[in-house]
Amino acid sequence: MRDMTAGHDVKTGAMVVLPDAEAIAQHMAKWLTEQALAKKGGPFVIALSGGSTPRRLYQILASGAYRDRFPWANTQFFFGDERFVPASDPASNYNMVETEMLAHVPVPAANVHPMPTSGDPAQAAAEYQAELEAVYGGTVLEPGRPLFDVVMLGLGDNGHTASLFPRQPVLDERRLWVSTCVPDDAPHTRITLTYPAIHSSRHVVFMLAGAGKREAFAKVRAGDPAEPASHITTEGELIWLMDKAAAGQ
Ligand code: 6PG
């Protein structure tokens, strides 16, 4: 299934197990800020995850010390996936990130790249890939020159991540960086980064919290090929940032 040489994958990635969801959010805010501040010679490029788990992280980054310290003007904010709904829709990942973080921080509008969610989904995916190519400075992903500094991911209880859902053709996509997906077990048409785009990264960080993630994590950590998240790889480092409940401890 996978035809990419992994720097790290879900089985070899480091596990960082913390007491609870708040500790995960605080740890990620600190780590992400350090990574962004350390980036030299170009923008810090991140793909944000949606869902509920990262909400607290975004609130922390928008508050106090982090708001003043994070290098907003040198960061390019992309999204790992999006529901094909208007930005005003509560189901929109962009809506959540804008509400919890982007509306409260001094990030230049040109540095924020919402996934298009109108018109034809395949056309929207192609437009988003063009935005990524413009920031990357090329149309072919070069090993050793990753597209993203950080890709944030969550994990669904059906083993999906980003919008790479079970039984969907997007799981076989190895050429496009961005594609579409119509899950058969979740609402909304989706736009999503593909495996090759996620692989082109210095860090992939999965954020998991709660006992509800325990079963899916165990399957993915074991490399169960039926779980879409099992096929995530990165050129760089893969980190499982989770609480004890999700880790089964
Ligand atoms: C989405 C997310 C998705 C999410 C997982 C986990 O658009 O729904 O990108 O991949 O990360 O479903 O979601 P929770 O964090 O809500 O458990």
Automatic annotation (TrEMBL):
EC code: 3.1.1.31
Catalytic activity: 6-phospho-D-glucono-1,5-lactone + H2O = 6-phospho-D-gluconate + H(+)
Residue ranges constituting the Glucosamine/galactosamine-6-phosphate isomerase domain according to the UniProt record: 19-240
CDD domains: 6PGL
GO BP annotations, alphabetical order: carbohydrate metabolic process; pentose-phosphate shunt
Pathway annotation: Carbohydrate degradation; pentose phosphate pathway; D-ribulose 5-phosphate from D-glucose 6-phosphate (oxidative stage): step 2/3
One GO MF term attached to the UniProt entry: 6-phosphogluconolactonase activity
Enzyme class, first EC level, given as a word: hydrolase
Swiss-Prot/TrEMBL keywords: Hydrolase
PANTHER family for the chain: 6-PHOSPHOGLUCONOLACTONASE
Protein purpose: Hydrolysis of 6-phosphogluconolactone to 6-phosphogluconate.
Name of protein: 6-phosphogluconolactonase
Lineage: Bacteria, Pseudomonadati, Pseudomonadota, Alphaproteobacteria, Acetobacterales
